[in-house]
Amino acid sequence: MDAAFTAEQDEMRRTLREILGKRCGPDEVKTAARTDAGHDPELWQQLSRQLGLPGLAIAEEYGGVGCTPADLALACEETGRVLLPSPLLATAALAAPLIGALGTAAQRAALLPALAAGELTAALAVPGPALATALALTGENTPGDWAGGGRAGGVQARAGADGWRLYGEVAQVLDGHGAGLLLVAAHTGGFARARTLLFLVRGDAPGLVRDRQATLDETRPQGRIQLRDVQAELLGESEGHDTGEAGPLPALAATGLFAATVLAAEAVGAAGQALARTVDHVCRREQFGRPIGSFQAVKHRLADLYVQVQAARSAAYYAAWDPEQGPLALAQALEALRTTSGEAIQLHGGIGFTWEHDAHLYFKRAAADELLFGPVHRLRAHAARRAGLFAAAGPVTSDPSATPQKAAV
């Protein structure tokens, strides 16, 4: 296996870093995140036209670049460095793979070119704070409570003479407040024969009400979606999506592996940048007549952070080559980002605790990503279950402090 990056990949990273370096300083990032769109539309169009960013992993026949998941992961490492607020994750890592895997030929031809060109953004809407479960990152995504369980709550679908109709509410949807297309997970068939299916809803559909929610990480905008008898289109040709009784669940799990790989690379980029800024600060900040970075205790802390970030980067790169390792790489990357951003606040001293400083943005990204896609101990526990590590010992507890022996009791 040749693990070296190609000349094209190096050039893409260099170009993207140059563009983001000019347009995504801490003040610009905050300003973009606080707009109604939640991102800078002009920068999004530049990244779409000049680099084809949202279409990197979309096939060329649908207007994409036709690259591997590794290319999108490398790009997201650069967007993670600056905490870029953009629809990239929701559109390219969550919605586009599902449309490519489950959509009909007509649906793929109608939607994927617009997504690849950046003309259309999309969001995956699953009821409640259950995105990690829906993507099979922290547990099996069998039909159940994560999608409403067929009872009141979640989103319900009803077939009528004029097609499908959806009703219900979905909160905490990444970019759900402004995406032009929604992929909504909904129950159909009543309680006794309830099945979870995916439906396409246009952003301007009558009866669709959306608003932006307050979030811990303002660079990850989220929205609340209310569906009031909204007309929708089934994603795929039949209720089984031509994938058997499991419906869209295998495709959701496969998308989860891909998204975990992208998120791991993004978290590594953020952790690396937080560490670099901290090193720069301790080299310039003086105390007792010398830079605080010259003190041995500070050197040891920074050395430990460097090792952790580099290990997470290696795991993320390996996952880009083998997406099956995505959840474990994501766990390691999120842990590295949380530790590095926390130490960045400490080592910046009093200024690091202020809202004006950008250190807290990295810490909030670490905490928010764990809430959305983790937490870390559940990512690892589910990966262990899938690998059969504790098959003989019994079920694995979600308690991070429990040992395998305690888990079996």
TrEMBL record:
Names of required cofactors: FAD
In terms of InterPro entries, this protein maps to: Acyl-CoA_Oxase/DH_mid-dom_sf (IPR046373), AcylCo_DH-like_C (IPR036250), AcylCo_DH/oxidase_C (IPR009075), AcylCoA_DH/ox_N (IPR013786), AcylCoA_DH/ox_N_sf (IPR037069), AcylCoA_DH/oxidase_NM_dom_sf (IPR009100)
Pfam family membership, one: Acyl-CoA_dh_1
Q: Which UniProt keywords apply?
A: FAD, Flavoprotein, Oxidoreductase
Tell me which positions the record assigns to the signal sequence.
none
Does Oxidoreductase show up as a keyword for this record?
yes
Domain Acyl-CoA dehydrogenase/oxidase N-terminal, residue spans: 6-119
Per the database record, which ranges form the Acyl-CoA dehydrogenase/oxidase C-terminal domain? 262-387
Q: Does the keyword Flavoprotein apply?
A: yes
> Could you tell me which SUPFAM superfamilies the record lists for this protein?
Acyl-CoA dehydrogenase C-terminal domain-like, Acyl-CoA dehydrogenase NM domain-like
- Which protein family is it in? Belongs to the acyl-CoA dehydrogenase family.
Please identify the protein, giving its name as recorded: Acyl-CoA dehydrogenase
